[in-house]
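REQUEST FORM: STRUCTURE PREDICTION
Request ID: SP-0412
Submitted by: Lab K.M.
Chain count: 1
Length (residues): 150
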Amino acid sequence: MIRMILVLMLMAAPVWAVQPDEVLDDPVLEERAREMSKDLRCLVCRNESIDESNAELARELRILVRERLVAGDTNEQAMNYIVDRYGEYVLLRPQTGGSNLVLWLAGPAMLFLALLTAVFYLRGRAKAPRTAEKKLSEDEQARLKEILDE
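STATUS: Completed
RESULT:
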C-alpha cells in the first residue's frame, strides 16, 4: 500500500524537461535560468513553460537563456533579448503596459458597455406604456365561433 502511495506521489510531481547537458555548473546562474524559464512560453506547446516542455524549440530557448546569462546579461537584459527575437508572445505573463494596455482594458470595457446597455434597455421597457388589448369585433367573434363549432 505504501509503495502504491509513493508511486502515485512521484507520478503527480512535475517533470522538468531540462536535460543534464543543459544544466550550468554555477548553481546561482542555473537558479536564475530556471526562474527565467518559468516565465517563457514554449512556442510549440503554447501554455507550457520552456522548463516543462520537451520540444526542440523549448530546448533551444533554454540553451539561449543560459548562454545569455553566462555572457553576463542580467535577467532583464536576457529576457529583453529573447522578447526582441521571438516577440512578446514568448512571455507566459504578457506585459500590461504600452499598447497591451488597450487589450487588457478592452474586455472589462466591453463588459461594462454591455451591462450599461442592458440596464438602459430594461429600464426603457419598464417605462414604456402598455398597449391595451383590442377586443374582437362582432364579425371576428362570429367567425371564431364558427371555427370552434366545426
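NOTES: The radius of gyration is 32 Å.
Reviewed by: T.R.
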